[in-house]
Amino acid sequence: MSLLLLTGSVLAAPPAANGALTVAESPDFATVELRDPWDMSEFTDVSQYLNRSGQASYLQNIQVQSGIFSATSTGTKDAQFFPLFPGYETAMLIGKVGELFPIDPSGYRCLFIAMRVESGPAEIPGGPDQFQVLWFSDERLQSGPWGQSVGIQLYPEAGGGQPTHSWRLYQADLVGDFLAGDGWNSQPAWRGLRVDPTLQAGIDFQIDWVRFTDCSANSEPVTWSPPAGSYYVWLQPEGESRQIRITDSAISSPGSIDTQGLAPGTYTVQLGGPTGCCAGPAPSPSTLVVNQTPIANFVRPSPSSGEDYATQAGNSWDFEDGTDVTQLVNVSAGFSNGVINLQTNSAPLPNGSDPQIHLNLPQQIAAGSAYRYLSFRLSTAGSLQNVPEGMITRWIWTIPGSGGGECHLVSQDMPFDVDWQTYWVDLIDAFNGSVEQNSGNCAGAPNSWSASNSILRLRFDPNENALGTTMSQQLDWVKLSKVDRVSSGVPYMFQISLNKPPQDIQSFSYFYTLDPQSDPGTWTPASQYAPAPPPTPTGGSTIFLPAVFRGFQGLGDGATFQWDTNSVALGEYYICVTLDDGLNRASFCSDAPLKVE
Among 168, 243, 360, 417, which residue's CB has the most CB atoms within a 10 Å radius? Predict the structure, then answer.
């Protein structure tokens, strides 16, 4: 009996007890920068700007299910999706968009995609079916600097004939595979990535993952016995029937495989030919484990962890009942299970049906600048994002008019996506906090949220429906928050959520910095608060009482750190953490600062 064996001294960790080889995950843009890998575990990995936000027909039969993104190309022969969308021009740039998370071309250049495409025979003059990658400098897309890779043949061995379809791991080097436009290294940053998975019409395709790396090979030796013959290496994800070819050519024993394009997970390693698995001397295949990089998201400080206006006023906007609103206009609504259920009819643009939620404002807000972050959790039914036809929200605030009356100030557009999403907006940002339009007695009115004083009323418009059909939404909560703060000398509790159990992480190192985009080597270590020991009890007897925590909530897969602020200068700081699980090390910073005052 033959056995496929993975060996080598280059391992970051020894093989597991069951004989599996465990290797480190290679640095991946979506994992490290977005804190959300493009693993197709959720629709948001590909949902933004699909079919040009509902304005074109490039894909049909779109699904994201069981970790697979699948669709069918249409007759336009321009199938496409954005792993990273730059954002919508003239709208707020919120969510996981490239304007907020730009790609450094010196750090990332190789795109890997695990994909099966049901391509047809070569077409004249198009030739064999191919996939292609495009990149964009900003939300103008092809109206600004942009470039594209060469077409990479999906089944080169088929020539002009009918290919034998299979799952394969494809690679595009955006430097070496450049075709036209602006080269990958021509700009300081790129904010959009588009993948065109097929050039043919009516073609089904499936995608398991997309990864974007620095192109540094992560080679692992592979041997088999007897060592006769050359074979392609195939991987089968744990619990799945599909097998993915990961080598571009056949290799001999001893050889090596590059694991940089592999998503974290457990795989069965097997040998086969160019079009199928499994063949050769491998009836007892071995197991490969790609470690998952630890990922942290800050729960505190965060855009929603500071003092919330409605909560401190005595009635948070959690929509447990109708007291959170004073008026509903152009929308049917009902309260149940802590959400407000909304049904909005369609109406023509430019205003759509103009649904309005007037929030309960028990007390006047003296200055808008006191509250920096607007955040909300919203679910919208539907199959595709459609921003041009009304998938935007607005924030409207009312101030006293000049010489009497009132002035109503309207925010810029806030695009939203389908399904449940949590959004936050920095209202101090020059664009996000600016006024797009006003109405009423607004002579000399301020042009931003932060310049507004004596705010009398607040309104949240959940959409501007012009879809031609009823829009169904659920709004879970809305928060208007101050920057989180702590008095100098008072300890502050950092709180993070994690993608893996904290016991699987060997070290947590906390820091603070004025600039979260700066090099981690410049961050200042955060000192842990150590309370003074209690005085030694006196007397003949000691009674021990159970500890009682008021308002404590279990963290699950999370961690806390109590920061000693005694030696920290006054100011606003972003909090950062470096995680190391023995195989992978990564650093993350809070989205919002903490003010030490």
Answer: 417
Residue 45: phi and psi, rounded to 5, are: -65, -25
| Cβ atoms of 428 and 441 closer than 8 Å | no
**Cβ contact 165:118 at 8 Å:** yes
Q: Which of 391, 390, 388, 389 is nearest to 417 (CA)?
A: 391
Within 8 A by CB and 6+ apart from 131, the residues are 113, 115, 117, 151, 152, 154, 170, 172, 195, 196, 197, 198, 199
DSSP 167-213: EEEEEEETTTTEEEES-GGGSS-B-EEEEE--SSSS-EEEEEEEEEE
Q: Is the distance from CB of 511 to CB of 520 less than 8 angstroms?
A: yes
359-380 burial, b at 16+ Cβ within 10 Å, e below that, comes to bbbeeebeebbebbbbbbbbbb
**Residue among 14, 583, 23 at smallest CA distance from 269:** 23
pLDDT at residue 161, as a whole number: 95
Residue 53 DSSP label: H
Give me the amino acid identity at 99. Answer: E
* Predicted pLDDT of residue 542: 54
Residue 569 identity: A
Which CB contacts under 8 angstroms, 24+ apart, belong to 63-67?
Answer: 64/40, 67/39, 67/40, 67/41, 67/208
Tell me the chain's radius of gyration from C-alpha atoms.
Answer: 27
Peptide bond into 226 cis (omega under 30): yes
Output phi, psi for 434, to 5 deg: -85, 160
**139 and 93 in contact (C-beta within 8 Å)?**
yes
Indicate the residue type of 282: A
Element holding 149 (H helix, E strand): strand 146-149
pLDDT of residue 543: 57
Tokens of 307: 């003092």
One DSSP character per residue, 92-107 reads ---SS-TTTS-B-TTT
- Residue 280: which of 220, 222, 221, 224 has the closest Cα? 224
Q: Judge whether 522 and 557 are in contact, CB under 8 Å.
A: no
**What's the average pLDDT block by block, 10 residues per block, for the chain (597 residues)?**
37 46 96 98 97 97 97 97 97 96 97 98 93 98 97 96 97 97 97 98 98 96 84 94 96 93 95 86 73 97 97 95 96 96 93 92 95 98 96 97 93 97 96 97 96 97 96 98 97 97 96 96 96 71 46 59 96 98 97 98
Residue 174 falls in which region: left (phi positive, over 0), alpha (psi -120 to 50) or beta = alpha
pLDDT, position 539: 65
CB neighbours of 107 closer than 8 A, spacing ≥ 6? 29, 214
CA atoms within 13 A on the CB side of 367: 6
- pLDDT for residue 14: 38
